[in-house]
């Protein structure tokens, strides 16, 4: 496995401190459900050159795009990673959260409550799906071997698994979340968290954008649960970013490079898309077709090489997502925009409203 190291000593410095990315987020501003329809969410447009802010609806985003621009989407598909199991013999209830497949039928998982699950235990999800606990992980998780008959593994969990809602949404997942916590352009299965900036797009809105002459292309980055892991070290240079698998096709790279060569905007939808494009760039001039793993951690100061504009949501305090958008604008500018969002009743986090940084 190859990774892209996050720390460039020429661009990152010890001036970036965790306390700079703290703000007070009232619990009632955390969206528990998305708006309907998707593109009726609010959109804050931040003009970095003038520091002006527009308050719009998301369906008005085409007004800020031009023919020849390229809109880059992350087409990862979320699978229902949360399984409810019963521990054999004791009948204790255990949550099994799928993280990643290590090899066929062998998975790294999180279990809750962890203290009740030991190597050698058998967990039963349904009469068709069980797993044996075969190892512990250094991060406190477990390695399990799934046992099942008949149907394919993913067919089974699509039926019995629950949508992996973020831990800050204070409710149980509902059947509808399997649809709403998924972009309309999701295609490549592998994420346990949605690329939430993409949740605001509808099929009709994407068709409208393409009809304007804007190129819509897709890359893939499978978002892991680490996206919700807060930064805990005061000196950001000491934070290690989790690794995530990504891929960029030749077609997508060509589309992006042609737009750049023509002087058009590259608009990244979501921080996961930003990290993918910035990982796969060469010499600050172009994106190359590539697949691999990235642990790129972006925080101020950082010189962006590919991305000209970002569509994003409003993020948690002290998160790697917040440091990324702060690097793209400025920490002071982002904090001012967040204060404006709170003053204007914007909804925050995964099911919340959107921001366009131009």
Short description:
The protein is α+β, with helices and mostly antiparallel strands.
Give the topology.
Elements: E1 42-47, E2 52-57, E3 70-74, E4 76-78, E5 82-87, E6 93-103, E7 106-112, E8 122-126, E9 129-136, E10 142-148, H1 153-160, H2 177-180, E11 188-191, H3 203-211, E12 215-221, E13 244-248, H4 250-261, E14 266-269, H5 271-279, E15 281-282, E16 286-287, E17 290-294, E18 309-313, H6 320-328, H7 331-343, E19 354-357
Helix pairs in contact: 6-7
Task: Give a structural overview.
The protein has 358 residues and is an alpha+beta fold. It has two domains: 18-78 and 179-357, 3-Layer(aba) Sandwich (QueA-like), CATH 3.40.1780; 82-160, QueA-like (Thrombin, subunit H, Beta Barrel), CATH 2.40.10. Helices cover 18% and strands 28% of the residues. The protein contains seven helices and 19 strands. The strands form four sheets. A nine-stranded mixed sheet has the order 2-1-19-18-14-3-12-13-17. Strands 5-6-7-10-9-8 form a six-stranded antiparallel β-barrel. A hairpin with a 2-residue loop joins strand 6 (93-103) and strand 7. Helix 6 crosses helix 7. It is globular and about 65 Å long. It starts with 41 loop residues before the first strand and ends with a strand. Residues 1-14 have low confidence and may be disordered.
